[in-house]
Amino acid sequence: MKRVLPMILIPIFLVTMFIVPQALVGTSENLTLQDLAAPAQVSRDARIAVYDEDNVTVPTESAAENLTNHISALVTLLENAGHEVTELTTADILNHELSVADYDIFVMVNNVPRENIGTLVKDYWLGGGALLSFNSAMSYLWYQEIIYPGVTGDPRYIAWDYRPFDTQNVTVRHSTMKDYHINDTVIENAGNWAIAAKSIFSGSDIVDDYIFMLANLTEPNFVSAFSVENSYRGGRIVQLPGDGQSFTTSIRSIIFDSVDWLVPRPKGRILFDLAHSPRNPIDSWDKDNGYSLYWVAANGFTHLRNYLVNHTYVVDKLYPTTGDAYTSAVLAKYEMLIVAWPDLNFTDTEITTLTNWVTNGGTLLVLGDRTGLGGNGYIWLNELLADYDISLGTTDVMTYVTATPVTHYTTEGTTSLEVGYRNYLSVIGDGFDIWEISGNPVVAGQEYGQGRVILSGDMNIFDNTQLMNNDNERFLLNVANWFTAGSDADLLLFTDYTPLTDDFGYHAPVTLAANELGLSYYLTMTRTAFLDILDAQSWDLVVVDIPNSGPNTALLDALYSYVDSGRKLLMCNYDVDFYPTHPLWSKIGIEYSSDITTADRFFVWDEMHEIFNEPFDYGLTYFNATLSFGDDGDLLTVTGGSVALAGYAVNETADNALIVLNSAGTVLYNGFLFDMMAGDIDDSTYEDRFELWTNELAFMVTTGGGTTLPFDLLTLAIIGGVALVLIIIIVLVVRRRSSTPAPKPKKKSTKKK
């Protein structure tokens, strides 16, 4: 039986090598893209709030007519599509249940918000929430100055009206109606539907924000459907015809695509505290609604909110409640909290809850001020900050000066900060100065547990007046970036591409792709800042997109050390030829072949590879450039087992590679500046460069940078251990059999029986 036992164990161990314990599956290497995020071409389960109000009398502000509350058909339609739908009444909204943290889209079906919630719905939209409005709900968009800022009252008969129709002409190719092309027709139920006059927007500074989708066949100036991507405030908007009683097949398709397009893709979620009566609120109606004792337009935080939302953040207001405003459930929805000089104190429970939230990764921006401001705000803020090493002093300085930066991640790209009436800070222990005036700290910070805190001695550095001066806006974005990335971000993203003025990389295609995938990342735009933070934190993936500045020796050296450690790199660069012998290239597995100066097209060599199929199924074998940077990239020779995925020739050809994956699968290198591909050659309604960036990011994140394995790392370790035991047993069996001497033959007995 002893010899039989190893023979029984061998098949048992062989079987266990192919059995994966269910409890051990589930690391990031096994996640599908749907697990990771919900890109635009993957069905997105939106959180939708539908306005439910039986009172359909027309509010005094509105010139609408025939309001209804037919929401059941739309609710069923959206739920059947997999969306999470909640019906919110006027009372629910008065109870502050409508927030961007809880709902992606607010829907008004041929109805308008009642008078007492008009500004609350507007707060939601201004904070980055999306609006889907049908028919007469357009009236609300006008009189709340959502469609056209500065237009007061309801401009019916001038800017909008009703027209009877059922057939409309498609006037644009857009993501809100991907099934339709220009000059197709869309059939709606016959009715008297709200229309807007395109001519109203002609020549305005907001005309480029509007996409006119469906026009009247006989009066093309009148549009019944349009979408809005505001360039300076608020979330997205889609206006459609219909009263909600039923939807034609054509309109259903547009509803589904519109919902997907509307869903916010924020870099981070921010909460502004109104619950403790800030001396300076965000909007004028915050005082009107009793959330603040004061309102001075020059000192409000309207521009702070709008600027953050315009740079892909979402901002909710924390309204007063009957109990503690800071609860674990509320704070868990956000990465960042802003607290400005309060005229209401904090409870002990609130302070404890907030401190625990920061300890576990939350981030806190406190806007203090001079002691002579009046009230007890500086005392209460210091009580809030009691556990930290930064606090307000007792100074009362009343001058306007320029502060100088101390080296910190939040001062990237800045040289000066306008500071007004202020209080200098006490900074001890783990606290550190960020901005100083003649050696006196006026802005300081601290990393506390897993969280981060910043305190300003002047709350007005971010108000409607000072925010637009010096580098105050850039500093605000840097704070939000550092805060929302947190200490646990795994992705470092370096891009110097700025398609919009003063955008600081927030709308670069690679950045939007990271938002599309729901990734947590730290964004940097300068080589110096990138090199500083590269070594300050452990990153799983580094993305380098530098079509403007190109690399230098310090950058290449740092990337070499990073890649040499086995971590993942996604890079887009045009300048291998300037440093052709740098060891980074051989580490990746590429060599410089020749330069590209007037590239207009490159070709897919491996059509089945994920970067061309997931989540965007590109479907073509080539990409076209619509822009040029002068030096558009380098042709590459593949070495060291790397694989060329695309190149400059139609078919794979030596010395013509452009997209290369290294042999370990940890580096994906692009030698062609595909930020130039601003067109939509595959007719997906998305820019080609956005699609490719999204696919490349998804590939690098979901595959672990190499071949996708069917088992997670722990399971592989167990399998490896089992295999090792099996090998040892086999070796021992073989050695035992080979080393045991053969039994001697028995001697024949000479005895007679």
Task: Please tell me about this protein's structure.
It is a single chain. The chain has 753 residues and is of the alpha/beta class. It folds into four domains: 4-25 and 711-739; 47-262, Class I glutamine amidotransferase (GATase) domain (Rossmann fold), CATH 3.40.50.880; 268-485, Class I glutamine amidotransferase (GATase) domain (Rossmann fold, 3-Layer(aba) Sandwich), CATH 3.40.50; 491-702, Class I glutamine amidotransferase (GATase) domain (Rossmann fold, 3-Layer(aba) Sandwich). It contains 19 helices and 31 strands. The strands form five sheets. Strands 1, 2, 3, 4, 5, 6, 7, 8 and 9 form a nine-stranded mixed β-sheet that branches. A nine-stranded mixed β-sheet has the order 11-10-12-13-20-19-18-15-16. Strands 22-21-23-24-31-30-29-26-27 form a nine-stranded mixed β-sheet, sandwiched between helices. Helix 3 links the parallel strand 1 (47-51) and strand 2. Helix 1 (4-16) packs antiparallel against helix 19 and helix 14 crosses helix 18.
Q: Can you tag this structure with a few keywords?
A:
nine-stranded mixed beta sheet, 753 residues, disordered N terminus, 4 domains, 31 strands, Rossmann fold, disordered C terminus
Number of domains: 4
Provide mean pLDDT, rounded: 89
The H-level CATH homologous superfamily of the largest domain, spelled out, is Class I glutamine amidotransferase (GATase) domain
Number of strands: 31
**Under the CATH scheme, which class of the largest domain?**
Alpha Beta
The CATH topology of the largest domain turns out to be: Rossmann fold
